[in-house]
Fold:
Amino acid sequence: MSNVEPSYRVLRLLCANTIGMGGFLAAYVVAREPGVAVIAAVVLGAIGYVASSVLVDYASSGTNGS
Structure:
């Protein structure tokens, strides 16, 4: 069996996409302004990507048995 390190890029992008879509819908419901909703989605998507990256790094560091 090979010991290939898995890539979590897809997981990070899915998390960012989900958070971005949720942010867009919430901002659109509150502001009723598409421009504000797009900006909120981009900001929340970036935060979601960074947060999922930190979570993946934390989770992968705990698999070494330490």
